[in-house]
Amino acid sequence: MLSSGPHTVPRPVLTVIKQDEFLVVSGNVSANNHTTIGIFADSQGSPIRGTLQWSSYPKSLCVEFPYIAALLRNNTIEIHNILDQKLLQTIPLNPSFEPRGMSFGHGIRVWMEGMAQRLSRRQWPSKKKQRDEQEEEELQFQLRRQVARFSTLPARILVYGRDSVMAQIVTPLVVQVDALLDTKNFEEALDMADQARNTLSTDNHTHVERMQSELDYIYQKAGLLYLQETLFEDAFALLSKGNLDPRVLIYLFGDLSQSSWVEEVPNVLLFDGIRSLLETVGKIEDVVARTMEKNYSPHLDEDDQRSSPIMEMRRVLLKNAREALERYLQVERGKHRTLIGKGNAICKVSFDPKKKSLNDF
User: Fold this and answer.
1) What pLDDT, in 10s, does the model give residues 100-156?
2) pTM of the entire structure?
3) How many CA atoms lie within 13 A of 183 on its CB side?
4) φ and ψ at 346, to 5 degrees?
5) Under 8 Å CB-to-CB from 23, ≥6 apart: which residues?
6) pLDDT band of 347, cuts 50, 70, 90
7) How far is the C-alpha of 331 from the C-alpha of 337, rounded, in Å?
8) What's the rounded Cα separation, in Å, for the pair 280 and 341?
9) Which residues of 160-176 are buried (b: 16+ CB within 10 A; e: fewer)?
10) CATH 2.40.10.480 boundaries in the chain
């Protein structure tokens, strides 16, 4: 600490955010003033981004982009988002721990059950024709191995005290966003997902694979929830963003579905949570019927429900769904263009609006 009259000026704290970007912390500490500000600066010393504020002066800082953790002198850890400078979490520490500082470490890995539950995948549908037993065992082994790899996360932020060390783990994106989707905070959930998608680093292959699986789960779940609300255009855009196998969506349109397609290569693999939500959604006809019942049935008698305006509304919703599917399949055709003519079942989803049928590419 540096003394300056009635004020005590702590020594500045500096940390590296990423290449050519730093965070400098300074402030005054007195009986009536605990002003502590963090300023982001580039390699020339020019301010960038916004500023950070803490309730107490940091002892040390640790960065796990896009988050920054600060160990404060009041025995708490505050987590901020670097991108928007928002305070995300405050973690109180037991004073008996006597926290001394933080450091960025490697080699500590922790199993996250919440990740395993969300990223576990199985073949869909369950009742598929009998496959080669060895092939089935190999597929199950690969899926278990993948979820184990994704669900064992590195604990990089270490907090050391007088005689012990604690590891801080960032709550995975899929766990945070899934909770928001469950409470229908769609805008906040998708903002978080899009932000993570746009800032995804390609430095670590396993991290990229895991994050892509998290994002796929998020967009697929959001898409199905939008589908339940008959927001077909937005729903299909999200499902495409989440890389849902087009055969799954075609299955929802009973008159277009061809059961033989899901038996072909490649296997249709779905996250467990998406499988259960898909069962709740049902066919497109069911989605429209539930919407009509929810919005109109409580206010109309049985004869009114069979009236022309009500039937016309139902017809319009089904037509909107079909048109949204057509646009979705055109997008998917572009995504899978390199597989055309190679016997891949995903390519059998080209929609012919004139014939109102699906044909091979």
Assistant:
1) 999 888 768 888 898 999 999 988 876 555 556 777 788 888 889 999 988 888 888
2) 0.77
3) 8
4) -60, -30
5) 14, 15, 17, 38, 39, 40, 41, 52, 61, 63, 68
6) low
7) 10
8) 35
9) beeeeebebebebbbeb
10) 2-93
Helices (H), 152-295: 173-182, 186-198, 205-228, 232-241, 246-252, 272-281, 284-295
Residue for token pair 């292959």: 205
* Alpha-carbon gap, residue 27 to 159, rounded angstroms: 23
Q: HSE, CB side, 13 Å, CA atoms: give it for residue 205.
A: 0
- Local structure of residue 161 (DSSP, 8 states): -
> Model confidence over 197-251: pLDDT tens digits?
887 766 667 788 899 999 999 999 999 999 999 999 999 999 999 999 998 998 8
Residue 30 amino acid letter: S
What DSSP element (H or E) covers 57?
none
**CA-to-CA distance for 173 and 206, rounded, in angstroms?**
15
Instruction: Tell me the two tokens of residue 240.
Output: 């495409």
- Taking the C-alpha atoms of residue 188 and residue 178, their distance in angstroms, rounded to an integer, is 11
- Is it true that domain 2-93 has CATH number 2.40.10.480? yes
For residue 199, CA distances in Å to 66, 93, 202, 203, 270 come to 8, 31, 9, 12, 26
What would the two tokens of residue 358 be? Answer: 């699906």
Residues in contact with 109: Cβ distance below 8 Å, sequence separation at least 6, in sequence order: 152, 153, 154, 155
Contact 277/270 with Cβ under 8 angstroms?
A: no
Is residue 142 packed enough to be buried (19+ CB in 10 Å), middle (13-18) or exposed (0-12)?
exposed
Give the phi and the psi of residue 325 in degrees, each rounded to 5. -65, -40
Say how far apart CA 35 and CA 100 lie, in whole Å. Answer: 22
Tell the residue number behind the tokens 């990740």, with chain if given.
115
What is the Cα gyration radius of the chain? 26
